Amino acid sequence: MNKVIVIGGGLAGCECAYQLLKRGHRVELYEMRPDKQTAVHKTGLLAELVCSNSLKSRDINTAQGLLKNELSQLDSLILRVAERTSVPAGGALAVDRTEFSREVERALSEFNELNVIRKEMTEIPDNDGYTVVATGPLTEGKFAESIKTLTENNELYFYDAVAPVITAESVDKEKSFFAGRYGKGGDDYLNCPMNEEEYVLFQEELKNAETVILKDFEKHEVFNACMPIELMAKRGKDCMRFGPLRPVGIKDPETGKRPYAVVQLRKEDNYNSMYNIVGFQTNLKFGEQERVFRMIPALADAEFVRYGVLHRNTFLNAPKTLNSDFSYINNEKIYFAGQISGVEGYLESTMSGLMSAINIDRELRGKDKVIPSEYTAVGSLMRYIALPNVNFQPMHVSYSLMPELEEKIKDKKLKKEKYSQRAVEAMKQFVERISKE
Question: Which of 144, 163, 237, 371 is most open to solvent, judged by the fewest CB atoms within 10 Å of its CB?
Fold first, then answer.
């Protein structure tokens, strides 16, 4: 019987342990709590939820609802327990936090081959077998140094300072234009011009928009990392125009003149389906981001794939360090799961632990590794984290990560239904395939 070491008792670690145990492997699960707590955990329970009790939408015609369907097909313990311990939350799946964690612990404790070791790990063990690192977004201290050493010191980050990402199709192309600064870069940037009146109104709303209150342990580190766009707005009328909204070297092809200010959008993926709002790292609340950033004329109908954030978050530069199956590129017996792997969100983290376990099991049985179709929420996110990306930031599931539909559909609701139908069928085929093997 093979032993696998799993470090971290959060959602990813617990899901990974369960998937390995049910496949007949021994698991040593290391969790430092309750002897040593993080800045946000309150208990010593496994799978403790810390930021929210909501696991987002149940609607299968949303990316989050689709992910739940796929995890259900893959027999996710975390999802099953979440459904069992759910509380009323409209169309969302929300849970009783304490009961949820207790149920996960009870389910894992039924396996005799599980050994939970309450001990802080200070380094990645020198292990002949497989190791899964699932230590979460607050990984720090000696263990973080161990990861930095493994990844040659420069591929582990300790904060998220990321601009919003929007869908390409939601940008008004009549109010924007492709151009590089001084004619360089071709269509690398989509430019959203603003006249003086539009800019002044935008700046004023940005100055007064409501922000998220950072925790004490985040403040120093995060704000030394970058300046939020709303803070630039407060530093004077022209601060943004000498920063990310500078119009120098850009001409509007409609007028042949330089705009008063320009918001630039940069391609975020290989499908050209998403754009990053360049330089818009922000601490605004999500609703405020939609309200204020839609004041930019070309972004009046912007659809947000990911909101901007500024918070403490330890994660790997996944495209440079991980394969798409979450294994480390220089040692495929080491896997990274959870938010440290470059995924964002509770169930995305769960998925990374689940897929890591499936592929470890397959390797131990002499089978090839597997990744679901890129048409699925799971498969598209797994591929995304490994794609070359010089500006990589953690990502959650999104229809924008999947290949476009073969048929052009304008109706957004129908389009999402088609994406989901295609994904459900692709995951069904994947599950049938690996079940037979």
Answer: 237
